Amino acid sequence: MNDLSDAAQRPGAEAFSHLGRSLEEIRSELGVDPVSVQSIRDPAVYELEREKIFKRTWLKVATDQELPEKGDYKVKELPVADASVLIVRGKDGKVRAFHNVCTHRGNKVVPTSGFETFGKSRANVLACRFHGWVFSTDGPLRSVPMESGFGKLDKACLGLREIACDSWEGFVFINFADPPEQSLAEYLGDFGKLFSGYPYNEATTAFRYSTVLECNWKVALYAFSEGYHVPTIHAGSLPGFRGIEHSDFKLIGPHASSTIYGLGMESAESTGQFAGVLHANPDQGPRPDLLPPGINPKRRPEFQFELPNIFPNFLIHLAAGCGYPGIAFFTHQFWPLDHGRTLWEGINYFRPARNAAERVAQFHINALHRNAWLEDTGTMEDTFTGIRSGAIDNMLLMDQEFMIRHADRSQHAYLAR
Ligand code: FES
Ligand SMILES: [Fe+2]
What is the H or E stretch that residue 409 is in? Predict the structure, then answer.
């Protein structure tokens, strides 16, 4: 954890007021022209993105709460970087990342299944099942069966190949560059300061969803980066929704954010009852007081959630129980598998339930939110097919879609480096 998360050093809302932009400023900085779909359509752009974005920026790959104890590990398959990444908490308590590659002949040290594999090393070692080389969870090669048979072997140089790894607010990031151009704190910059201090680590109940979508990763990212679609595509899951206000725009280096304020949502009676169960517990009800000082600085009661995009592929929606009852925050991530296939991962985080009634209420709210996500993901493959057809050359973006405009600009800046 870096010093950005030290609440005692955190400034008040006024320290962040320079980050907020008016609509006029956003239009003036980003323009109002149509944005080309060429970077979505062209497979050659995807190959450049792999090298210049995904192998050079900080990527969130885990959370502290996924690796609570020494010896806990997670393996993340990242085809975008041709990599299998082992993230492990060592005997000293530190989380490190390594290529999940045995230095003998390249077998995976931890066999994997699917895109994520979790496990625990009780003795703080990991053994490759091919020929039995043994590595410490902090990287060094510990033992080699029949070592004398190699004639000459410098074990000190044959540890697991380390990948730069750092944490921010309990989110674990890696960077494939060796060394990275910036530290994680430098990369997040003012974004890290603005969003630090929320008790992310207290929301330990997580509901996870993922699926592979037949679309370019940016189509999926963009569908979750704006609120313009809410009254239409979510008319099924949110029938009583009376509109939203998208404001408090922020452009922070390659990252961006804005606040969603709700103008009212008359939910079904059952949802209202389940929300009442959660709201009876001060820990599960709306907690705008917990928001970092620069988020919803005027503490407006209609705050729903903050919608930040951490470049290139990670969204943290900070809800504090205000948007959907009980949901502390939720995240989306979009992992390219190839030019036209994307692994989407969505996770809802709640504070732990005190009793069975709260647990059932959490299930209900989670299912409501899952239904909304099904409506979101349902557009993505059609959008990609439409873009690939050549029928349109541009996206026409309105104010609430400014983060798409900004993400496109950030991508082009990285591709030009
Ligand atoms: S490839 Fe791992 S021990 Fe041989
Ligand atoms: Fe949506």
Answer: helix 402-415
